[in-house]
Design brief:
Elements: E1 5-10, H1 11-22, E2 24-29, H2 36-49, E3 52-55, H3 59-71, E4 75-80, H4 82-87, H5 89-97, E5 102-110, E6 116-120, H6 125-130, E7 140-141, H7 146-163, E8 166-172, H8 173-177, E9 179-184, H9 244-259, H10 262-265, E10 268-271, E11 278-281, H11 286-299, E12 304-309, E13 311-313, H12 317-324, E14 330-335, H13 341-349, E15 354-359, H14 368-379
Helix pairs in contact: 1-2, 1-7, 3-5, 11-14, 12-13
């Protein structure tokens, strides 16, 4: 990894360096704006750390390659943006079903379809949760700075290894292309998690038999264990078993290994919520405007606080539920789309508070002034509450 110290670093570069620091040694990808700098940095740095990089023919091949590399024992990663992430959905589901640890960096841009290739958006949020068919548990981190892109890429690898699943680092064009100070700590200060290995002899091993944490140990190709890997509903041996009983054992566990460990995974920030009666909810690049908007709104006499999900999924639903019952009258969700996380906030309030949306399109982030104006409009009753 890099020498410890302070660097002036672009977000995408920080993401690549975080991956290397986490132990990533296999990367397969396909160039796409605004994520290409991750791939480019990897191509420069992997020869120095004895990593393997492949530029694939498309995004389908990219994610298929990292799933295979993970089963061969490598920490593996790909990076893309919205259109490429759409192409990855089938194998995203395969990785979740086969419990294959890996990391996908998705740098959001304007959509739908080709949309605004070089401009910021937050339109892939629900896709990371619901894009693949079937029922699954997912983990998605939403960094707001180059420093967090470094830190949360490491955390994404650790979470992928600990809970055995593909983890998404959900950046956006603004965060990935801004350049800021990034502190790289000494290697010995970086927490690194590696996947659990089976302890029993090969003849007694059941590849998908979970431990108490609902996560099975993982034997890699070449470890001497017989492992059958399939996207079909499978039993603890990994063999296809197309029946109700097996699916009722397997699929709830894939969900519960995240849901029941949410306290270990979930992260969020709060700012000035103690005396607030209104809460702004913002993530990614919009958080940077929102935190300034809180201070500006308070200067105008509004009691405003801020909740920032660092993990989009799992979502901080219990905290929103509690805030709605502790005196918060209004939640304002500021996001660069026409409403995605706002549905979660509206659901989590359970009707105990009003939810409002501050949408933004056109490839730009909200200004603090726009958010404050929205707060004033809410206070004056000029805009309707959001209803699902």
């Amino acid at each position: 990894m890099m020498e410890p110290g302070t660097y002036f670093m672009e977000g995408n570069t920080a993401c690549a360096e975080g991956a290397i620091a986490a132990g990533c040694r296999f990367f397969a990808g396909y160039p796409i704006t605004p994520a290409s700098e991750i791939l480019e940095r990897i191509t420069e740095r992997f020869p120095e750390v004895h990593g393997s990089y492949l530029q694939m023919e498309d995004e389908l091949a990219s994610i298929a390659s990292i799933l295979g590399a993970s089963w061969a024992g490598k920490k593996a990663m790909t990076a893309t943006s919205g259109p490429g992430f759409s192409l990855m959905m089938e194998n995203y589901g395969l990785g979740l079903m086969t419990e294959t640890p890996c990391v996908i960096a998705n740098v959001m841009r304007g959509g739908p379809s080709t949309g605004l290739p070089t401009m910021v958006a937050q339109g892939d949020v629900n896709q990371t949760r619901w894009g693949t068919h079937g029922d699954v548990g997912v983990v998605v981190y939403a960094p707001s700075s180059p420093q967090e892109l470094f830190d949360y890429t490491i955390k994404a690898f650790n979470t992928a290894e600990k809970y055995r699943l593909p983890v998404v680092v959900l950046s956006d064009e603004m965060v990935s292309h801004m350049t800021e100070k990034v502190e790289v700590p000494p290697e010995e200060e970086i927490e690194i998690v590696n996947r659990k290995k089976p302890k029993e002899p090969p003849e007694e091993h059941l590849p998908f038999r979970p431990d108490d944490d609902l996560v099975p140990p993982m034997a890699n190709a070449g470890d001497g264990y017989s492992v059958h890997v399939t996207g079909l509903t499978h039993d603890e041996k990994g063999h296809p078993s197309i029946d109700e009983k097996t699916q009722n054992m397997l699929v709830p566990r894939l969900i519960d290994k995240i849901r029941k460990n949410a306290d270990d995974i979930l992260e969020y920030d709060e700012y000035k919520v103690e005396d607030a009666d209104k809460i702004i909810v913002a993530y990614g690049s919009v958080y940077r405007s929102a935190i300034e908007a809180v201070d500006m709104a308070r200067e105008e006499g509004y009691k405003v606080g801020l909740l920032r999900p660092k993990t989009i999924w799992p979502f901080p639903e219990e905290r929103i539920y509690d805030l709605a019952r502790e005196g918060i009258d209004d939640f304002l969700v500021a996001e660069i789309n026409f409403g995605q996380i706002v549905y979660e906030v509206e659901r989590c309030t359970g009707g105990a508070a009003q939810t409002y949306l501050a949408p933004r399109m056109g490839g730009n982030i909200h200004t603090p002034e726009e958010i404050v104006d929205r707060i004033g409009a809410i206070d004056r009753g000029e805009i309707p509450a959001f209803k699902e």
